[in-house]
Write a structure and sequence with these properties.
Keywords: Membrane, Plasmid, Transmembrane, Transmembrane helix. This is Carbohydrate ABC transporter membrane protein 1, CUT1 family. It comes from Peptoclostridium acidaminophilum DSM 3953. There is one protein chain. The radius of gyration is 19 Å and the shape is globular. The chain has a two-stranded antiparallel sheet with strand order 1-2. It has one domain. The chain is built from 15 helices and 2 strands. With about 350 residues, it is mainly α.
Length: about 350
């Protein structure tokens, strides 16, 4: 089947769609400037499963489920589902942990950084500069031969594990919906205040997640890849999609009265600029070393990439560690333990980058 979104303008169209849908998700109930945030939503899933007990960030986010299943549907429809794994899984897991820690220092993934900017949160500027800096460091490793090795074709059923896991999460969510005012269902934990208590209607969030997952799989949409390709190859193809997302979200926010410019009093954000920069720099470096931003990792997992699935579980584990050990930031700012964790994260990522380089002949 022909990929009509694979052309020059397909990525722009998809970026526009994602930007509009993200703003609408905020309008329909998601937290401010958090219509879509892969890191935040995976953190909420970790909380819903009881992996951490931060009561304000616990909800089984349907958007994440939809991202994986939408990609799975697209990959199977277009015969691109390929079960593969085996490329340094433990390293990818560790990179996922530190990518999440960096994102939770900033309070958002690259998707949310863009949406925060489109909503008028100028703190996102520092985060995006940090993201670009971290990606730039990662590209230096790529140019010097960094590689986690190749993955290998495996049993098709192995590639189904992540989509089946998401189907299981959806079944639990439908079986165990939140009862008004209750913070615990039969199986899941639910926030009754804070960002975790704010969400769009389940079916709308799921439908948008499925659509975004489908479209992103067709276009290879990736925020990290956009900056990486611009630095390495001067290729702006993916970057056009990212720019379109910001423009569309900005326009939609204006129309919906969701644009509130400034540094202070921004939703789920802090003004410690150094740590906004450093947190996203760590996340950006980890994304390059792992081969994709958190959204792209979900889409890859949906099309059978077991290594991407390991990274996703690393991020979910990182969210649990961040909240169980006081590493995650809050609107009050970064914590002392979080600052130390960022430094440790840079040391670990640099160690991985320097020691996992193949000789370039």
């Amino acid at each position: 089947m022909k990929n009509y979104l694979g052309g020059k303008w397909g990525i722009v169209v998809v970026g526009l769609i994602i930007g509009i849908l993200a703003s609408l998700l905020q309008f329909w109930g998601n937290p401010g400037n958090m219509g879509i945030c892969v890191a935040c939503f995976e953190r909420d899933i970790a909380g819903a499963l009881g992996l951490h007990r931060a009561a304000v960030v616990q909800y089984m986010r349907p958007e994440i489920i939809g991202f994986v299943l939408g990609s799975f549907i697209a990959a199977n429809m277009f015969k691109e589902f390929k079960a593969r794994m085996g490329s340094a899984p433990i390293v990818r897991f560790v990179l996922g942990i530190f990518a999440m820690i960096g994102a939770l220092i900033f309070l958002g993934c690259p998707w949310r950084a863009l949406l925060r900017l489109a909503g008028g949160d100028w703190n996102a500027i520092l985060g995006l500069i940090g993201l670009a800096f971290g990606i730039w460091i990662g590209t230096r490793f790529l140019q010097s031969g960094y590689s986690l090795g190749r993955n290998y074709k495996t049993y098709k059923s192995a590639g189904w594990i992540m989509p089946l896991t998401m189907l299981g999460f959806l079944a639990i969510l439908l079986f165990d919906p939140q009862v008004a005012g209750a913070d615990k269902g039969k199986l899941l934990f639910y926030s009754i205040e804070g960002p975790g208590s704010m969400h769009a209607p389940l079916l709308i969030a799921l439908a948008i997640g499925l659509l975004v997952g489908f479209l992103a799989q067709r276009t290879r949409f990736c925020t990290m890849g956009a900056i990486r390709d611009l630095i390495l190859f001067k290729d702006a193809h993916l970057f056009k999609g990212v720019a379109a997302l910001v423009v569309a979200a900005f326009a939609a926010n204006l129309a919906l009265n969701q644009f509130h410019p400034g540094f202070t009093e921004q939703p789920v954000a802090h003004t410690m600029h150094l740590w906004n920069f450093a947190g996203m720099a760590l996340a950006g470096l980890a994304f390059v070393l792992a081969g994709g931003c958190p959204g792209r990792q979900l889409f890859l997992a949906g099309e059978g990439d077991g290594d991407a699935a390991v990274f996703v579980w690393g991020m979910i584990t990182g969210a649990a560690l961040a909240h169980n050990f006081g590493l995650a930031s809050s609107p009050a700012g970064a914590t002392p333990y979080g600052m130390v964790a960022v430094i440790i994260g840079f040391i670990v990522c640099l160690f991985i980058g320097f020691t996992m380089r193949e000789k370039i002949s």
